[in-house]
Amino acid sequence: MADSVRRGMLIKKAVDVIRSSLNGQTVSLEKLSVVEKQLNELAQHKELFTFEDFPPPTQDDPRTSCLYRLSEDEDHRFALYANVANGEVNAPPHDHTTWAVIVGVHGQEENRFYNKTNNGVAQVGSKVVELNSSVKLLADDLHSIHIKAGEPVLNFHMYGLALEQLHARNYWSEVKGQWKTFPAHTDIREAR
Ligand SMILES: [Fe+2]
Q1: Diameter of the chain measured on Cα atoms
Q2: pTM to 2 decimals?
Q3: Cα–Cα distance list, 46 to 7, 12, 50 (Å)
Q4: Measured in angstroms, how far is the CA atom of residue 2 from the centroid of ligand 1?
Q5: Ligand 1: distance of its center to the CA of 58 in Å?
Q6: Confidence of residue 192 (pLDDT cuts 50, 70, 90)
Q7: CA-wise closest residue to 38 among 53, 70, 16
Q8: How many angstroms separate the alpha carbon of residue 94 from the centre of ligand 1?
């Protein structure tokens, strides 16, 4: 069986379990354990999620990371992406306005967590996402993402709703000293 067919079957199987577990439910961190478990199992097939099939941006690209769509329902829910990076990434503290789960496959991505304060954010913890390590976030939870140059990273990012549909994600701009809104993503690549 071709790798792409096998990959597609395993992704569908994982998303089917996630959908049937979460559909019609109030999402909690406990409920998101299902997502974490399914994506961690998918990550064990890391030979199906290579940098050849999901290339990071090339050296001449100003961006150091990009997203490939792995699965998304017709109504744009249960959106699963491969996030790949090669080079330094520093995403500011932000929320998602929907639930999010990040599961490591290749390389390391540091997640830092924050509480809102009167004048910005205060870090309350951090976790390195790598193979067998993951992060779960509810709609209002804040995190920032940090990847070091030198080792490419591929991980799974799954959201309650596709990133092109999220028009009101907030991020804290340290430079401006204020909360700003991310524009919805427009450059998500389709997986082969
Ligand atoms: Fe995020």
Answers
A1: 56
A2: 0.95
A3: 10, 16, 7
A4: 32
A5: 22
A6: low
A7: 16
A8: 6
Count of domains forming the chain: 1
pLDDT at 191: 78
Pairing relationship of beta strands 189-190 and 65-71 according to DSSP bridges: parallel
pLDDT tens, 100-156? 999 999 999 999 999 999 989 999 999 999 999 999 999 999 999 999 999 999 999
123-129 contact pairs (CB < 8 A, 24+): 129/102, 129/103, 129/104, 129/155
Map residue 129 onto helix, strand or coil: strand
Phi-psi region of 107 (alpha: psi -120 to 50; beta: other; left: phi over 0): left
The average pLDDT across 76-82 equals 97
What residues make up the domain containing 7? 3-177
In sequence order, what are the residues at sequence separation of 6 or more whose Cβ sits closer than 8 angstroms to the Cβ of residue 117? none
Q: How far, in Å, from the CA of 6 to the mean position of ligand 1?
A: 28
Query: What CATH code is carried by the domain that includes residue 117?
Result: 2.60.120.10
Q: Is residue 185 part of a domain?
A: no
Q: Is residue 190 one of the residues assigned to a domain?
A: no
Of 34, 154, 159, nearest to 96 by C-alpha is: 159
Determine the distance from the C-alpha atom of residue 182 to the mean position of all C-alpha atoms in its chain, rounded to a whole number.
Answer: 15
**DSSP assignment, residue 138?**
-
For the record, the structure tokens of 146 come out as 């940090």
Residue 182 lies in a domain: no
